[in-house]
Amino acid sequence: MSKIQMKVPLVEMDGDEMTRIIWKMIKDILLTPYIDLNTEYYDLGLVNRNATNDKVTIDSAEATKKYGIAVKCATITPNAERMTEYNLKEMWKSPNGTIRAILDGTVFRTPIIVKGITPYIPTWTKPITIARHAYGDLYKNTEMTVPEESKCELVCTDKNGNEVRQLIHQFKGSAGIIQGMHNVDESISSFARSCFNFALDTKQDVWFATKDTISKKYDHRFKDIFKEIFENEYKEKFEKAGIEYFYTLIDDAVARVIRSNGGYIWACKNYDGDVMSDMVATAYGSLAMMTSVLVSPSGVYEYEAAHGTVQRHYYKHLKGEKTSTNSVATLFAWTGALRKRGELDGSLDLCAFADKLEKATIQTIEEGVMTGDLALLSTLENKKKVDTEEFLVEINERLKKML
Ligand code: NAP
Ligand code: MG
Q: CATH number of the domain at 118-141+181-284, out of 3.90.1140.10, 3.40.718.10, 3.30.750.24, 3.20.10.10?
């Protein structure tokens, strides 16, 4: 059989620790035997980030803009311990943060659902994709503790020096706290467009919610921007695709999410997304089964697993012990990127291969062959725990029969 060809490269961002080991295994066992992989390779492993003064991260993001699609391995975000472990010149910033800032994207997280691993909310038979607005609000706030009898005001000075003041609170017999937050129309608009584009891509409804009844200016601005962009740019496309944009209050949204079957994109303000993505991930069962894609408003995609580098397993691996690390989310990052490459370039064979590889992966788990983390969760009766490499070999056995 001749290998599948790729017309245009995709950007490959290699990473750290156990996921770096898995990365190579996935390529060797499941990809290169079938595809003439055409990637522009960037080594985002911490050793190379340090050697290049983190230039490699910026270069990889610029290349992603150029080619439109990237697949990324999990990477270490350095802390004090990593400074000594890797003898770092600097405490380099989180690569994901750097890439997100360059691509101006929104992160969409989607659980992979398999039989035998039942969500805590059993009616969630389809995935719920959370989109978190990753700019501003509480995460860029200014706050103070203030003594009693303080008069606290919001002051805005415009470019001509005109001041507008509004009372926040006149403190009386007690000290207290105050906080100032902001967001910018441009960022909210990018967020809205990323959500609507991703909805069209995946043929799913978009739900968005704020507390606009209480926050009549701040939250209401989010509601208005979403509505305006939807009406002007997406309404017709949504009608054609048979999908909907649905706005409601955040508390109503939470109640509806719990009662739903899933199968939509839930766009969340920054804080709601922080909280709800952890809730949704936990409810679906496993972080190792959560994929993540960064989508820019201009239609650039970066695929990755939601989990980290699985450090504890890596140290076992270094000691020569077998690990049973789940490669599903990393594998689905690859299939997501390959399918998108195929869609954009009109390579149907690449799309079909990605579909089959995902099917073979799910079939493997549903036939009872899985890594240790899933074996602990699965309700299947005849399950077999396999090691990291055996799992990929088992997938390959099933994949071969499908090709
Ligand atoms: P982690 O790598 O997600 O792992 C935390 C624990 O979750 C593991 O020890 C393991 O539990 C379990 N786990 C996660 N993924 C798994 C998988 N694929 N298969 C089996 N079990 C899995 O988080 P961390 O240990 O907090 O972070 C390690 C490094 O990853 C840090 O340096 C952090 O900076 C980085 N990180 C990177 C990204 C990213 O690049 N997107 C995201 C998060 C963290 P058991 O040990 O109990 O088996
Ligand atoms: Mg959180």
A: 3.40.718.10
